[in-house]
Amino acid sequence: MSVIEKRVLVASFASLCFLVFGAFRYLGPERVAALDTVTVTGGTISGGLNASGKIHFFKGIPFAAPPVGALRWKAPQPVQSWKGVRPCVAFGPSPMQDEPRPFSMWSEEFLIPKKPISEDCLYLNVWTGAGSPKEKRPVIVWIYGGGFGSGGSAAPIYDGEAMAKKGIVFVSINYRVGVFGFFAHPELTKESGHHASGNYGLMDQVAGLKWVRQNIAAFGGDPGNVTIAGQSAGSMSVNCLVASPLAKGLFRRAIGESGAQFTNENPTLQKAEEEGTTIMGALKASSLADLRALSAEDLLKGAQGQRRPTIDGYVLPDAIVNIFNQGKENKADLLTGWNEDEGFVFGPAKNAVDFTKEMSEKFGSGAPALLHFYPAGDDAEAAVSQLKLSRDMTFGMQNYVWANIQARHGGNVYVYRFARKPPATGEYIKYGAFHTAEVPYAYDNLAFVNRPWEPLDHELATEMSSYWANFAATGNPNDPTGSGLPVWGKYTVKDKPIMVLDKDPKTVPLPDGAALDLLFRLLGDNAPEKRQFELKNGKYQLTPEGAGHFADLPLRCMQREFPYKTGIAFPDSSLAVKPKEYHPAFYGCFDWHSSVHGHWMLVRLLKLFPAMPRSAEIRQRLSENLSAENIQGEMKVFAMKDNLSFERTYGWAWLLQLESELLQWDDPLGRKLSSNVAPLAKQLSGMFIDYLPKMNYPVRVGEHTNLAFALRLAWDYAVQVRDEPLKGSIRKTALRFYQHDINYPFSWEPGGNDFLSPALEEADLMWRILPDTTYQLWVRRFLPAMSRKDFSIEPGQVKDRTDGKLVHLDGLNLSRAWDLYGIARHLPANRSRLYAIANKHLTEALPNVASGDYMGEHWLASFAVYALTMQ
Length: 871
Known about the structure:
This protein is an alpha/beta fold and 871 residues long.
């Protein structure tokens, strides 16, 4: 037997003695010393000491009343008080669930004890090395996994002693699982008092956190420095708590290991209630009283399957992805990641042909791009790809998206990839760095797992648990002294550094970010219960959900001053002030024109969907920004002699488009805001009329100064308001510059920074100027290829969406789509072909509108809505 094997056996035997024979000193009520007894909500408790006498532990502390009988499917109620000193030296019952049995890669060390298991389960545990309640140690609150249908805080790998030795006050809590924790029903919703049901397990977690806030100081913990941590469903729970308004102020940091919910697969309250009604019928119960009268065993046996959080409007007011995208989540530092080998393929892997077919059926036009990252050249390669795809869809993509959003919102974010394959024997060898494998390392609990550990495993466990403890203390996993641990780089959306936790921990660039981005674009934006747009009769149609999604983007930036790119020429330092001071209406969204068309987009969406999500907030923002006083302030900028070219002609055109949209909005607010904006529109109309005759040459670039784009928006305004002088000036200019254009070299497009097509913008303008028959002849001369049946152009491709110029190509795909829709209406012979090309460009572009980077998000939503509504 090797030295390592002896060490493991000794450690395992010691742990076994600790668990079975109670290798601690029981501290009864006769001994009252610092932390020997602690007064908490409900009464006084006593605990135990570890073998060294330096760590106090308290197990089975009740934090709520037993959720049984009439309290089944109720929010957790206040704990029942007791008299005297309550011994808390053994774990309370695990939540009601099936008897635990080792399966797959999970041996018994990963599971709860076989007994006790009970519906009376709302207990928590505390480990602390504090010598006095006056200490303020960082706190970790652990939330277990188990698919929301199993699990409990008494699993050996969740022991808190090792973390307590590192200066952490470690708390683990129980919460209801399965039908006991996530059952929804219309009658439960009605009796709840907050019109919701189904999230009792999450409410248990909130109750546990409230208990920590009220009581943890008595254990030497700092209630103002709490980190919530979890793995798998526990990590998903952490994700829910960061999103939930009920958990506001209860924690400062979050650790999410392999689990989040950003593809909106949680049921709505209505859907969950329907499932609950079906379960009630299957159990032959006619009322809630009947259901509550059933034994826990009968209920468990007859109600399998209901085991996930619900978008109930109370605990979770909206889908988690929406809450985060709207910036409404609880602010928290984040440490998150996933494991190298935690994909699941149930049954035999598909061969290469069947896997390729499945990808095409599931992902449609996105399948070829996805197969680039998950190839299926032969059966062996396809088998590996299936595991990787499962890993990334279930865990990697979710935690990756979480990290990106949290990083954009300004928190400290650190991302890991656990790649160490735990040493194994027998059937466990094949599993690699499996799901949950990181937990014993992260909390330094290898001693509780029967594996042939090597010295490097103990080193890795020491390092990982130190990272976790440092993060809980400061929000930074690195050694505060600057030595002793490999440096873990802070995560940014642009560079994507992650810590690979393996034999030689090190920070490296995330190797598969492009694959995860593509997955989320294919799954996140098209999640089953969140359709943002639909393709019907060959046309994309925006949905109310999609309207809410797009509106989120300008709402996040329209009152955000920085970063801001100004085009103002300041005559002296007295005018060099904050954006809002010289642009009181349009000071957000990075630059003036993006702010203007962001306001335009919100007006168009409200016209189309008056009851869309956040409609009241949109109306309020529009009222605040587009006041008469603010518009007068904007007019002063254009009157400054050094700024006659400010936003010429792109921003001018978008302002006219905004006024045109307001005029068409049959709403009292629309009429009021149109009256406010009209003077600025008239000012810019006059500037157009003054400027256009001075131009000797058109501006044909694919960016802001493209003249044809501005002329067509200005034309639409002129038609709407019957501004005949402006119409006449535009017509003369268009005919002067474009009427005799022939044989445009379309193969030269796109330019690397284009977000407009010079050719298509010109063609989209000229159908407004020319009669249809004349226009069709003009198109044949200008773009001969467009009249051919085989005419085709491919969408632009973007490699880096954090680059403000390269991301222009996403906008190009959208603007090409709207141009082609307009042109097609006037070229009936090739209409269907042009519509198909436009749809192809929309299909490529729409998933990238919310790319996760401000360089694209501050303007692309307006382009998307314009394209979708120009059909």
